[in-house]
Amino acid sequence: MKLETIDYQAADSAAKFVQSLRDTGFGVLANHPIDKALVEKIYIEWQAFFNSEGKHDFLFKPETQDGFFPAEVSETAKGHTVKDIKEYYHVYPWGRIPQSLQENILAYYKAANELAEELLQWIEEHSPADVAVNYSIAYPR
């Protein structure tokens, strides 16, 4: 199996992306609109957050699932018996986010969702008819 990198800016990127999904189950994009510098800033900012004691001020709420999840409440992956010991933070635009981390993470959230919407549209537009007939709902426009 050969996994090609698709140039997001190429004229045929949508068709090639969907074909890659069909052939390999994966789609790898280069030159996409997600700002690498923004992602790097987010890693630095959130690493500082996870290294601080302030993370405990944002413990997750079971009813909303937003916030900081300490290692003690880590999950066990489906089909496994050993816990996946890690700390993580669920970010939702409507959820609790430390003020100092909001700007960049919400900018990323917006950009990633816009890209996801575009990729879903590509899939709908370039799927073969025998595949598309099985889609339960159309992509909303």
Automatic annotation (TrEMBL):
Superkingdom assignment: Bacteria
Biological source species: Shewanella benthica KT99
Protein name: Oxidoreductase, iron/ascorbate family protein
Gene3D superfamilies on file: B-lactam Antibiotic, Isopenicillin N Synthase, Chain (2.60.120.330)
Upper taxonomic lineage: Bacteria, Pseudomonadati, Pseudomonadota, Gammaproteobacteria, Alteromonadales
All residue ranges annotated as the Non-haem dioxygenase N-terminal domain in the record: 10-94
Coiled-coil regions listed: none
